[in-house]
Amino acid sequence: MAKGIVINKALLYVPLRFVSEALGADVDFDSTTNTAIVTTDDSCNLPGGQVHSGTVKPGGETWGVCGSPHFVKDDIYVEGKDSPNLVIEAGAVFRFENGAGILVGLNAPGGLVIEGTENNPSIFTADTAGAQPGFWKGIHYYEQTVKGRASIDFAHIEYAGGSTGAVTVTAGTSLVELTVRDTQFKNNAYAGIQLTENTRLSLQSKNLTITGTRTSPDGGGAPIITAAYGTNNLPDGNYKDNDLNVVLIAAAMSSTTVKTNTTWNKLSI
User: Fold this and answer.
1) What's the pLDDT at 153?
2) Roughly how many angstroms between the first and final C-alpha of the chain, as a whole number?
3) pTM for the full predicted model
4) Which end of the chain is more exposed for a tag (fewer CB within 10 A), N or C?
């Protein structure tokens, strides 16, 4: 007699949302009709290994698990006359070649929004075995970054930086504010986050882990390097095991005069 498990004259209940989402479906609930709605998405017709370089398309683009892992062969420019937005979906994996990066709002308006989740973070790493800190350029937001389109949620960023931070924000006259939440920076060079001139993290930024930051030929080695303005409300986090376990305020990036109300939080360094 074949052996097995037989469930007879009984009901086995399993969580609908857990099973459905594990299979790639979305679950909504219609409270009016007390009906669960399960939606599957089989629209992905892209093979894994999508290659990116150049400028995003007019109207913007969305890169996600569909097409992952994504390979970035050269700099990606997120900018254009119509202020395109690049959205990175949860679970997307990006592998960067040496010296490649993402540049947002450098020559024209643009935005970059990274929408990772706790269970499906977005991954940004080096496309090489045995990667070292500073292998790829990192993510750079510039002065023409569109307001409200600069955010990073639940991302893992590693082996980036070098002459600047793994994530760098640069602006001279117009304020650029970046929101970074629940994100891990590991094994980067120069800085995990660099804030220059008229830039800062938003008050919504939280739960940052910046570890393994190494000094590059250009210096650094701290988890956060910031101009005076960027000291405004830096969030607490895990900022340990870097070459310099300090927040480095670099006068060379701007005036050291603090001209607005500024809070220097007690950080866990």
Assistant:
1) 98
2) 64
3) 0.82
4) N
